[in-house]
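Late entry, written up from scratch paper. The run itself happened at the end of the previous shift, but nothing got recorded in the book at the time, so transcribing now.
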Amino acid sequence: MTDCRRSLLKRQAEVLEAENELQNAKAEIGLYLRNDDGSPRLVETLEPKLETQALRKAKTFELDKRRLPQITSLQTQRDLQNAASEFGRNQRLPILEVDATQFQTLPRRGEPDTTRFQLGVFLEIPLENRSGRGKEKAALAKRDSVERQLIYLEAELKARLAQAAATMTASEKRLELLNEELKSANIVANAERRRWRSGDSNLFLVAAREEEAANVEIRLWSADYDFVIAEAEAKFLTNTLF
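Output as recorded:
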């Protein structure tokens, strides 16, 4: 009786811990859901779908740079710095302007026609080249910095996506094995209960077999949780979450 009570108290503590995690999950999901007025939506229930455990299949996700705002933002910054460096380079170049003008006056009676044609050439050579050279070098330095950020970001996204894919594949295999293990554990627990009813076992062994089956089911749900989290991470990285 004492051992059975210990087992029940342990399971009750696990239930309280699971309920606490469920409430935290509801609060976190509520941050991403909004009502029509923009206020956070309260999540009332989160019903697990037991039948989905055997249906988890790892999918293939590909990074599309055009769908990723963090990459397009850096690409835009790089283009702006390229334009700024080009502007700085142009400030150091001489300016050559050609101006052609024709004037024709309407003569009065008895006055000669005074039509004129003027051609002007203007050459401007900037003497202070340091300002333009400094702007060009500063823009090029910022462009190189953004380029390195872009390279690192792409590598980081690919690495995180590869980790998520590996987790999904491993979780899929774990789910297959744990489903078979759970079937075996339930068969053993049912057999132990039949032995107890026939007087060939005791409640201690029955409780031990049932606890083994319960632990396998807990690991099954943990693998299912890992798969769902990895899939959500992959969808977030590829901007296909919604």
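The mean pLDDT is 85.
(Scratch paper discarded after transcription.)
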